[in-house]
Write a structure and sequence with these properties.
This protein is α/β, with parallel strands linked by helices. Helix content is 39%, strand content 26%. The protein has two domains: 152 residues, 3-Layer(aba) Sandwich (Rossmann fold), CATH 3.40.50.300; 64 residues, no CATH class.
């Protein structure tokens, strides 16, 4: 099984101790949500997994891969895709060109074309805007495009940073439903969300980070019912 297992991770940015003895597991097939306030270490956790920053100590494995030794591009080739906050689509390229770029490490053009069509089926709004420049899309559509581009890469494990950031509630809900469908089709998801309510709705399990440490963990239902989580992250 290609579970993601982080053990006793410590990560520093010079003197800033961003992750402290962090351990967490994402089992193959799960959606796991990371909750926490600004600066808690959520983005750092994703960046460490995808190899953009390096942990000082600890172990990070994904199936047979040692993530602390793996180069980010090799991770992408193996199906570990990270959609950072802010989406970063190419604004002067069309929706379709953006989608195809997601297949830059996929050799078979037919596979790329098929996955692009699957992305359009999942997100018909993108199909309607196929020839439109990325920069002219709404925030929600840009998030869908970022997801679609990752899907063309054939993700096995998807790291998603704040997909509902800045979106109107209804659009955010649609994006979360798409994430849920992507998961149902076989992609494991590690989801960072400020909107804890929305995240716990689609997640199987979750972890709460505070100042770089895991302070709570459990099933999504357990966390959603925990008075500390309700007070700190779900509002009264
Ligand atoms: P946010 O939701 O605001 O992105 P977060 O939970 O994702 O917060 P991180 O971005 O992982 O938190 O930040 C964790 C800690 O590391 C914070 O104290 C932050 O200031 C610090 N940090 C993050 N990136 C850097 C960097 N490149 N250089 C120095 N410190 C950093």
């Amino acid at each position: 099984m290609s579970d993601l297992v982080l053990e006793n991770i410590d990560l520093y940015y010079h003197r800033v101790h961003a992750l402290r003895d962090l351990s967490l597991t994402v089992r193959e097939g799960e959606i796991v949500s990371l909750l926490g306030n600004n600066g808690a270490g959520k983005t750092s956790t994703l960046s460490m997994i995808s190899g953009l920053v390096r942990a000082k100590t600890g172990r990070a494995r994904w199936g047979d891969h040692d993530l602390l030794r793996m180069q980010p591009w090799d991770a992408v080739g193996a199906g570990l895709l990270h959609i950072p906050e802010g989406r970063r689509i190419f604004s002067t390229m069309t929706v379709h060109e953006n989608l195809l770029l997601g297949g830059y490490l996929v050799k078979d053009q037919k596979v790329i074309a098929r996955r692009a069509e699957e992305a359009y089926e999942l997100m018909p709004r993108l199909a309607e805007r196929r020839g439109q420049q990325g920069g002219t899309l709404s925030g929600g559509e840009q998030q869908m495009l970022a997801l679609g581009r990752a899907l063309v890469g054939g993700p096995k494990l998807l790291l998603l940073d704040e997909p509902s950031m800045g979106l109107a509630p209804l659009i955010a809900k649609q994006v979360m439903e798409i994430v849920q469908r992507v998961n149902a089709q076989g992609t494991t998801v590690l989801l960072v969300e400020q909107n804890a309510r929305a995240a716990l709705k689609i997640a199987h399990r979750g972890y709460v980070l505070e100042s770089g440490r895991v302070t709570m963990q459990g099933s999504a239902a357990e966390l959603a019912a925990d008075p500390r989580v309700i007070e700190a992250y779900l509002g009264a």
